[in-house]
Amino acid sequence: MESIKGKRIGLLGGTFDPVHFGHLAAAKAVSEALHLDTVIFIPAYQPPHKYHFSLSPFPKRSAMLELALSSWPRFHISLVEAERNGPSFTCDTLEDFCKKITNDTRLFFITGIDAFKEIHTWKKYQKLLQFSDLVVIARPPHEEKSLGLYIEKYFANHLYDQEKDAWISQTERGAIHLVSMSPVAISSTEIRKRIDLGEGVEDMLPDDVADYIKKKGLYKSKIPNTSFLISKGIK
Ligand code: ATP
Ligand code: MG
Fold first, then answer.
1. Nearest CA owner, ligand 1 atom 29
2. Which CATH number fits domain 8-180: 3.40.50.620, 3.20.20.370, 3.30.1330.40, 3.50.50.60?
């Protein structure tokens, strides 16, 4: 793994298929709210929760990320999950990062509310807080108000501390933070769908990424559209 600079480091995991303005806005909002020195985007090599057959190959997803991050000097990419091979479990990734940092460095693993509310299904999810703080970022239409109940249920040792504006625990190192941001209603699923239908996605992701997608013919379904044959009475 590449060397890590900075004392407060955000980590944003995802499939990034493709990366979009929602990811960049989330990284920026968390950076500002928690005074992070840098955010490292970590593309999942083999996401355990997603259907592999429909996922774009890792080199293409990471190439798009590189293009998107090139104009953000404090945002970087880590290929650690590809280097490790096999299914990409976040607890392993955070452990790898922990080995690379000094004691005065603090890690903040960032997820949208949608991903956070599934965290109890992740491998050794409670271990995550031994390695890192967790940061939950608002993502419409997922509700923020039920977050407290979710934390109570799955992170019972963490209690909300008003002064620190975070859920903290006496026994575990990491805290859980909630960061709000102006909603960015963009998802990779929506982008893939729009491209397949031939609709524009210009406002949803950086131009370089849109050009790359076009050049590589990504997200166009392989099944030929035969509806025009039906309308002509050929089929
Ligand atoms: P897909 O639709 O394929 O699941 P996605 O848009 O959800 O893609 P991911 O790569 O799954 O993107 O997301 C990586 C992380 O970024 C997750 O924690 C997710 O919650 C967060 N995220 C993605 N889009 C947004 C957004 N618009 N606002 C806030 N957080 C987001
Ligand atoms: Mg997602």
1. 139
2. 3.40.50.620
Is pLDDT of 31 > 80? yes
**From the CA of 26, which ligand is nearest?**
1
Query: pTM here?
Result: 0.92
**CA 105 – ligand 1 centroid, Å:** 26
- Cβ proximity of 68 and 19 under 8 Å: yes
| pLDDT tens, position by position, 89-102 | 999 999 999 999 98
- Could you tell me the distance, in angstroms and rounded to a whole number, from the CA of residue 187 to the centre of ligand 2? 7
| pLDDT 10s digits, 113-149 | 999 999 999 999 999 999 999 999 988 888 888 899 9
